[in-house]
TrEMBL record, chain A:
Keywords: Membrane, Transmembrane, Transmembrane helix. This is Energy-coupling factor transporter transmembrane protein EcfT. CDD domains: EcfT. Its main location: membrane. Signal peptide: none annotated. It comes from Roseburia zhanii. The keyword Iron does not apply. It is found in: Membrane. The chain crosses the membrane at residues 12-42, 54-72, 93-116, 122-145, 225-250, 262-283.
UniProtKB/TrEMBL annotation, chain B:
One of its GO terms (cellular component) is ATP-binding cassette (ABC) transporter complex. Residues 4-243, 303-536 form the ABC transporter domain. CDD domains: ABC_cobalt_CbiO_domain1. InterPro entries: AAA+_ATPase (IPR003593), ABC_transporter-like_ATP-bd (IPR003439), ABC_transporter-like_CS (IPR017871), ABC_transpr_CbiO/EcfA_su (IPR015856), ECF_ABC_transporter_ATP-bd (IPR050095), P-loop_NTPase (IPR027417). Keywords: ATP-binding, Cell membrane, Membrane, Nucleotide-binding, Translocase, Transport. Belongs to the ABC transporter superfamily. This is ABC transporter ATP-binding protein.
From TrEMBL, chain C:
It holds the Pfam family ECF-ribofla_trS. The chain crosses the membrane at residues 9-27, 39-56, 68-95, 101-119, 131-149, 169-196. Keywords: Membrane, Transmembrane, Transmembrane helix. The keyword Cell division does not apply. It comes from Roseburia zhanii. InterPro entries: ECF_substrate-spec-like. This is ECF transporter S component. One of its GO terms (cellular component) is membrane.
């Protein structure tokens, strides 16, 4: 389902995901991690279709990484138990493992929703001004992929139709057959590429400086949101420099106290930043609920 | 205003010893004209068109002068030429550069550096003029061939060209999409006064609308004139391009002492027949009725299909919905029907590329599954796919053919290749790269490759797509020869005229099943839309004349 | 704080360095004003490298992508090899899922192209020459490409790197890299000559990738 966040301007998506992924990797403080986990999962839930498999997979990764970390890292002061002739399994290492695992999972979850939200054309829009030729190449590769996939199938079918398929052959035959398919595809693709470049030249590619057309428009609200996001980022960075997210797990546990005003503000700002897609989703639901109720 | 003035142009490709590709071309194209360029393949049509746009001009030596709007073409820079001269090529897929429809429409305008506002407006204009709104946000890979070519046209038109050059734009399209496309081109010419220069082998859709027809022959211009005058010229010289003319003209030239003005469309053809018989009594109005085709009479069918059901995925809709038919040995069995009705899937199911989930396919009375591995394709069955290029996997045509040979020693194998190459008329292509030959040549080389499996049953998927009239005739001769050797041919086609002329049996395929099967005469004389142009123009007078030859014959019997 | 940042955030720092290097390369590429035919050819080859996987659906664990990238490097030099490697890795992640591994894969595949570029001037015609190239490809993957990918996953999963974690990651990567290397070996062995011939044919027929 395409909810309201989905329709925002790509630049907002880009800033949002750079912010979340970077901070997801930087902040090891349990409160920050908790925020990140909660909102990354809730964001993923609002955009994804198939949820259960991914989330259970993430849970497994989390448990595995947490439990295994102390095995590789024996330092820490509170020993839980010893094994293999005196190797320590410590509480600090376990906590550290959990923090690491949380970080890993939250980054993957952000990426999973990124994958759905940030479609290729949005990505290309963001980079087409910075790297016009390279983003043109990317556009073309994305255009070629389905075309080539289909042609590969055509070649395979054509070979089946004259009894030259190695479907039931030995591993060697199948590998050689695959090479033959790729080889035929390459000839066809290179030849087609020359037609493509003629078509590009014929439409004036390279005749002067190029502009980049975009179908996305800035709405007033989105501009406000962008401004708020940037202000929020400044606040979070300030808090971080002040040591607001300081934490150390090994060799002894040390967690920054959040009762300070600015530290608390940093955490709240962080949560607000991460909550943007979820909040947009909830607000939209409420708006429609009211609209329907009034009718 | 004269848009293009071509003065004594001669052009030769590098490293060719024989005649130049173009010799002493003189041509004048005025603004707003619709110019059709026709000629056999290799006559230099494409080269001529490419010379009209500098970036597309191939390497080679050029003499003479090409004036665009009164000044030499080279003086117009890339930017001016890009926007003023639009060029659409043959292959719909390869011309598309980007992955989204909207981006493709904007591509040319982006290259010329227009600002957002202008691009937005132009793109919107194009989308509504060409009816693209519904698929504006789609990925280009989701479009049909016809839509892709329309998108190519629209994205060229977005730059508002004064001249539109089209190089066989419909050769990869089915007839309905092709007619749609050509109608759009006509509309552009009529409504926007855009000059159109087009090469086409489907002359029936454009011949009558042309202001000038240029006939090319071996790099020279054989004739430039109005359609009727060109028709008369071709008739007079009994030119090889005569076969490419629209049916009404062909019939007219076949019958008459030429006192009336020649008919160009089916309507004019029918009216001409009316005047022809106005002062004559109709003595013979029909061929002797043929017995209706009885499938059950076939004793020993080459292929028997029973209640075939097929779908691509478990939850997908059925493509084949209980197809049953039998094909007699040594005949040409044609299956006609619209696009996307599942004709290709049917062929693929017969040769095991697709697996039906229910039903039987019997090859020579034995179920397909009973043939052991490899047996089916060594000497029994082979399929020529729609795209001949998908069959070539080697560096030269010869190597591709060698892949298929079965002979014991080297000599045997070479003999086999020589024999087949001769049959398919590709002897001089053998050492070439498959991609360096023309479309018709590729089709013949692909046929040769398929024939090397020495099949007793040959399956052809749209074999006449993109073929010109001259080559179609040669191709039909090859098929007849194969029939004479006892080979059974099943072909799937959109090409009604071809099936009427050359098939022994025609089947109508619709909505996943075969509706009716009959001899071509019975089949087409009973249809009123899905039939040949010759039948449509003559059905009010003759009961069952189906091909142009038959209409001519019946007319002459009444003289 | 900043010192601490660098010490404990290997992943972020190293990834930024990688991205910066890749970005600088691309900016340079843009400055060279490549001809249309050249960069369409690179786009075509990148797309072929990504799609090629589908031709081997019948062969388990067979990834020809690195091999094809390396052949492009051999044909057109290190720069083009890097380009094709980075683009194809990035685009294939559009299909298989972007993640923190994306920059590392882009870099690793790009490096494979660069390494192959060193062979640019070599003659590869006879069977022994092809075999040698294939062996080279195997070791490039086993000793360079694979370890780069492993380093990426090591940094991703651990902020404090101990001998044990490093050992575990690199050792568990070894069999995967060996299979990857073997696939590259086979791809180069079977496909190197045909693809180079095709590319040479394009060079002659259409004048692409001429030295400037």
């Amino acid at each position: 389902m395409k909810h309201i966040f989905w329709q925002y301007h790509p630049v907002i998506h880009l800033i949002f995901y750079i912010g979340t992924v970077l901070s997801g990797m930087l902040f090891m403080h349990p409160a920050f991690l908790a925020c990140s986990i909660i909102f990354s999962i809730s964001c993923y839930m609002t955009v994804a279709k198939e949820k259960r498999r991914f989330l259970s997979g993430m849970l497994l990764v989390f448990l595995l990484l947490s439990v295994l970390n102390p095995v590789f890292n024996p330092s820490g002061s509170h020993v839980l138990f010893t094994y293999m002739a005196g190797r320590h399994y410590t509480l600090e290492a376990l906590c550290y493992g959990m923090a690491m695992a949380a970080m890993f999972v939250t980054v993957l979850t952000w990426f999973a929703s990124y994958q759905i939200t940030m479609t290729s054309d949005k990505f290309l829009y963001c980079f087409s001004r910075l790297l016009p030729a390279v983003s043109m190449v990317l556009t073309m590769v994305l255009r070629f992929l389905p075309l080539y996939g289909r042609h590969l199938k055509k070649i395979a079918d054509a070979r089946k139709g004259i009894g030259k398929s190695a479907e039931n052959g030995t591993l060697k035959e199948r590998t050689e057959d695959g090479m033959l398919l790729v080889s035929a595809l390459t000839s066809w693709a290179l030849e087609g590429g020359m037609v493509t470049s003629s078509a590009m030249l014929s439409r004036g590619y390279g005749s002067g400086s190029r502009t980049s057309f975009c179908i996305y428009k800035w709405r007033g609200k989105e501009k406000c949101l962008l401004f708020a996001m940037l202000a929020d980022i400044v606040l979070i960075v300030y808090c971080m420099i002040k040591g607001g997210a300081f934490v150390s797990y090994l060799p002894v546990l040390e967690i920054a106290d959040l009762s300070d005003g600015y530290r608390m503000a940093g955490l709240i700002g962080y949560a607000a930043f991460l909550a943007i897609p979820t909040a947009a989703y909830v607000m939209e639901e409420i708006r429609w609920f009211i609209l329907r109720y009034r009718m | 205003m004269v848009h293009f003035k071509i003065q004594d142009v001669t052009f030769a490709y590098p490293d060719t010893t024989d005649r130049p590709a173009l010799e002493h071309i003189n041509l004048e194209i005025r603004q707003g004209e619709y110019v059709t360029v026709c000629g056999a393949s290799g006559s230099g049509k494409t080269t001529l068109l490419r010379l009209l746009k500098s970036v597309l001009t191939p390497h080679g030596t050029l003499s003479g002068e090409i004036l665009f709007c009164g000044r030499p073409l080279q003086e117009a820079d890339l930017r001016e030429q890009s926007s003023k001269i639009g060029y659409v090529m043959q292959n719909p897929d390869s011309q598309i550069v980007t992955d989204k429809v909207w981006h493709e429409l904007a591509f040319g305008l982006e290259s010329l550096g227009y600002d957002q506002k202008t691009i937005r407006l132009r793109v919107a204009e194009m989308a509504s003029y060409f009816g693209i709104e519904h698929w504006f946000y789609k990925n280009v890979s989701e479009l049909s061939g016809g839509q892709k070519q329309l998108l190519n046209l629209a994205s060229v038109m977005a730059m508002q060209p004064e001249v539109l050059i089209l190089d066989e734009p419909t050769s990869q399209l089915d007839p309905i999409a092709a007619a749609d496309f050509l109608n759009t081109v006509k509309k552009i010419n009529r409504e926007l006064r855009t000059t159109v220069i087009i090469t086409e082998h489907r002359l029936e859709d454009i011949f009558y609308a042309s202001d000038q027809v240029v006939v090319m022959e071996k790099g020279k211009i054989a004739a430039v004139d109005t359609p009727r005058a060109v028709g008369a010229f071709l008739k007079e010289g009994n030119h090889e391009m005569l076969a490419a003319l629209p049916t009404p003209l062909l019939v007219y030239y076949g019958v008459e002492e030429q006192k009336n003005s020649a008919p160009l469309t089916v309507r004019e053809g029918a009216e001409w027949l009316d005047t022809f018989f106005a002062d004559r009594t109709l003595k013979v109005s029909a061929y002797e009725a043929e017995a209706p085709y009885e499938e059950d009479e076939i004793k020993d069918p080459a292929v028997e299909v029973k209640e075939l059901y097929m779908r691509y995925e478990k939850n997908a809709p059925d493509i084949l919905k209980g197809v049953s038919f039998r094909v007699e040995k040594g005949t040409l069995f044609a299956i006609v029907g619209g696009n996307g009705t599942g004709k290709s899937t049917l062929l693929k199911s017969i040769c095991g590329i697709c697996r039906p989930y229910s039903g039987k396919v019997k090859i020579f009375g034995k179920r397909m599954e009973k043939y052991c591995k490899g047996e089916l394709f060594s000497g029994n069955l082979a399929m020529l796919p729609q795209d001949p290029l998908s069959l070539f996997v080697k560096k030269t045509v010869r190597e591709d053919l060698e892949e298929m040979t079965t002979g014991k020693n080297k000599k045997d194998r070479e003999d086999e290749i020589t024999r087949i190459a001769k049959l398919c008329q590709i002897t001089e292509l053998l050492e070439k790269h498959p991609y360096d030959s023309s479309g018709g040549e590729q089709q013949r080389a692909a046929l040769a490759k398929v024939l090397l499996t020495q099949p007793k049953i040959l399956l052809l998927d749209e074999p006449t797509k993109g073929m010109d009239a001259i080559f179609k005739k040669q191709f039909a001769d090859i098929l007849k020869e194969l029939n004479n050797q006892g080979i059974t041919i099943i072909l799937v086609s959109h090409d009604v005229e071809f099936c009427a002329k050359y098939a022994d049996t025609v089947s109508m395929f619709f909505d996943g099943t075969i509706l009716t099967t009959n001899t071509p005469r019975n089949f087409f004389s009973k249809n009123s839309f899905y039939t040949t142009a010759a039948n449509r123009m003559s059905r009010h007078i003759f009961e069952n004349a189906v091909t142009d030859g038959e209409v001519i014959e019946l007319c002459q019997k009444n003289l | 704080m900043s010192k601490e940042l660098i010490n404990s955030h290997y992943y972020i720092v190293s990834t930024l360095v990688i991205l910066a290097a890749t970005g600088i390369f691309f900016l340079q590429y843009e400055k060279q004003k490549p001809t249309v035919k050249d960069f369409v050819t690179l786009a075509v080859l990148s797309a072929v490298a990504v799609v090629s996987r589908a031709a081997f659906a019948m062969v388990p664990h067979f990834k020809p992508i690195t091999g094809i990238i390396m052949i492009c490097g051999i044909a057109f030099g290190s720069g083009a090899g890097f380009f094709v490697g980075v683009i194809s890795a990035f685009v294939s992640n559009f299909i298989f899922g972007q993640g923190p591994w994306t920059p590392w894969q882009m870099f690793a595949y790009g490096i494979a192209g660069v390494c192959a570029g060193f062979l640019k001037k070599r003659e590869i015609h006879t069977m022994p020459q092809v075999l040698l190239t294939a062996v080279y490809g195997f070791f490039v993957v086993l000793l360079i490409v694979g370890p780069i990918l492993d380093t990426g996953s090591l940094f991703m999963m651990a902020n404090v790197i101990t001998k044990e974690t490093a050992g575990a990651v690199y050792l568990s990567g070894l069999p995967v890299n060996a299979i990857h290397g073997a696939a590259t070996f086979i791809t180069l062995l079977l496909f190197c000559r045909p693809l180079l011939e095709k590319l040479n044919r394009m060079k002659q027929k259409y004048g692409i990738m001429n030295e400037r």
